[in-house]
Specification:
mainly alpha, two-stranded antiparallel ribbon, 5 helices, 2 strands, about 5% strand
């Protein structure tokens, strides 16, 4: 499969802007209704789903890791799983800086480079382009959507336009 792997840099950067907007509006709402930041970050849609903090952390993990893998550069270390709201917002800015440092030429000719990755239930080897388009990007948007849904469900002033806060 031939794709322009570098386009994921912009996709993930815009998604991180959306995440920052969602978290900021969730924080504003929580403060307005007297909910602590810790309680807000523990909001979830269902008991067996990730909470808001873990949804955000997962979005960050995908945005930081998969473009790096595709470019053939070192994947940044995992984030702490107990970041507070300022920590998450800071991690978003750091991830955006990491993404902006990636250059198109780092992705050239890497579509078919095989990558073996453990996804918990299996450890398949796939071309990096297939990982990005069939696994990483759908998961990125899933967890970003869940963060949005959690915040909206709890009353944050979010609408569909907020999902495009990073632009088109």
């Amino acid at each position: 499969m031939k794709v322009d792997l570098y386009t994921t840099v912009g996709v993930y950067s815009r998604g991180l802007d959306v995440l920052a907007n969602v978290l900021t509006k969730a924080g504003d709402h929580a403060g307005a209704v007297g909910v602590s930041e810790a309680e807000m970050l523990d909001w979830r849609l269902a008991p067996d789903m990730f909470n808001l903090r873990q949804q955000a952390n997962t979005v960050l993990s995908f945005a930081r890791g998969w473009p790096a893998r595709a470019a053939g550069v070192e994947v940044p270390p995992a984030l702490a799983d107990d970041l507070d709201l300022p920590g998450l917002l800071g991690a978003i800015q750091e991830a955006k800086a990491d993404l902006s440092a990636l250059k198109p030429e780092q992705f050239q000719g890497r579509d078919e480079v095989p990558l073996t990755f453990n996804i918990g239930v299996m450890e398949p080897t796939l071309p990096i382009a297939q990982w990005l388009t069939g696994f990483a990007t759908p998961n990125f948007y899933f967890h970003l959507s869940m963060a949005y849904a959690i915040a909206r469900h709890k009353g944050a002033a979010l609408g569909k336009r907020d999902f495009f806060a990073g632009g088109l």
